[in-house]
Write a structure and sequence with these properties.
98 residues; mainly beta; five-stranded antiparallel sheet; 14% helix; 41% strand
């Protein structure tokens, strides 16, 4: 089975929350990784998402301690939209492909 992984840096300008994560997340840059698998047997190339994760600091363990948490991409999109509404320009924070 063929898989592809996409990593993006997303910038949040305000504190935000995501379903499944108890604490509010601080403003900053977060790495979001999406893994997709190729759908076999089609006459064209198509992928289905199998996981989306966000990398974040572990509270109380210093800057180098990181954890990866599975998230819902729809919830992430809503958090980005809420962040944009709070921004003076009303623009979505830019995602940077890696």
């Amino acid at each position: 089975m063929h898989e592809r992984t996409t990593r993006k840096s997303l910038v949040f300008l305000h504190p935000f929350s995501l379903a499944g994560i108890e604490e509010m997340l601080e403003p900053g840059t977060y790495i979001v990784e999406t893994v997709e698998e190729m759908i076999e047997g089609l006459s064209f190339v198509a992928y289905r998402r199998i996981s989306t994760t966000i990398e974040m600091d572990v509270n109380g363990l210093g800057q180098r301690a990181r954890q990866v948490v599975a998230i819902d991409p729809v919830d992430l999109q809503k958090a980005q939209e809420r962040d944009a509404i709070k921004s003076p320009s009303g623009l979505l924070a830019h995602g940077i492909d890696r």
